[in-house]
Amino acid sequence: VKASPGVLTAAEARASYCAAARAGFRSFHAFTAMANTVPDITNITGLRYIGGNPYRPVYLLTLGGAAQIVVKGEKSQHASASASIKWGSKLMKNAGHSEQVNVKILSQAEIQQFAVAGRRLLPNDRDFPTYIEFGAMIVWTKMPFIAGLSDSDVYGKGAAATDAVYDKLRKADFWDGLGRILAVDIFVGNFDRFDADGDFVNKGNLFFRDLGHGKAQVIGLDFFSARDVSSGESDLLLPADGMYNHLQILRDENARQAYATNVMRGIQASLLRENPQGGYNLFERDTYLTLLNSGIRAGANELRTYLTGKIATYAAANPRPRIGAN
């Protein structure tokens, strides 16, 4: 199938991701030392559970009485989950234009610090020891604490909260930003925000960062979907029949338009469900749909640029030996 100019095909997408991710997985320790702005976990002075579920517990840590980071567990039995999380973070940060996304995998020493702090600071939390005992079946991650974070889940929050979310959606840069985030979600197989058809399946995973003065930025947090311990999850290193079909959205205009339309319908329906008298209409201006579509396309192109650049870097650093060379 011939691709549109400048847009990666499904075959290119799979080959690029797998080549880069496998190379990065082999070089994991070398790359975690690069551009690591998340502090090492030492001297934990504060620890509290802030949400999640039995598969994805989330904790807020205070280090040395000052710096705060978020630690999250992703329950998975697949060895490649760490590589998928690491590369998902890189892709979301660079191609998804979510600069605040910076997810790192905890070292064994950090997990030990975390476990000791949990026993000391959360003595009555009976779930915490169980999470630690999952051992290799849970991947512990850390990320910066992002102030001013909110989401689009308005269920039970009333008209005022729904109006506030709608105001954030009526900004042109929101739709371009969401499109770029969705390009990465589609590429890594994260359907815990919108599914492969564009249905809005998790309202709590559409995040906004408050910039002040009535402005907000959409952020691509939660890009790895650990559905259960036996599924393929958001992991393109675990092939299965038909699992790459959704990549057509990144290269086919008709598929992309249908997907983008369903995304907007789902968001609008979630607002009207909470406040039927709100009169919300995201389709009153064709601009929003156009921006969402073009954002997905731009994200796809940036994925290609970023990954091919990484592959070239790896190839230069690790040249293959010539056949017949001594």
Which labels suit this protein?
globular; single chain; 9 helices; 326 residues; three-stranded antiparallel β-sheet; alpha+beta; five-stranded antiparallel β-sheet; disordered N terminus
Category by helix and strand content: alpha+beta
Cα end-to-end separation: 41 Å
Number of strands: 8
Which term fits the overall shape? globular
Largest sheet: 5 strands, antiparallel
Estimate the helix proportion, in percent.
40-55%
From N to C, what is the helix and strand string?
HHEEEHEHHEEHHEEHH
Explain what this protein looks like in three dimensions.
The chain is an alpha+beta fold. 43% of the residues lie in helices and 14% in strands. It contains 9 helices and 8 strands. It has helices spanning 10-26, 28-32, 81-94, 108-121, 127-133, 158-169, 172-188, 253-274, 286-317, and strands at 44-51, 58-63, 67-75, 104-105, 138-144, 149-151, 207-212, 215-219. The strands form 2 sheets. A 5-stranded antiparallel beta sheet has the order 1-2-3-5-4, sandwiched between helices. Helix 1 packs across helix 9 (286-317). The longest helix has 32 residues, at 286-317. The protein is globular, with a radius of gyration of 21 Å. The N and C termini lie far apart (41 Å).
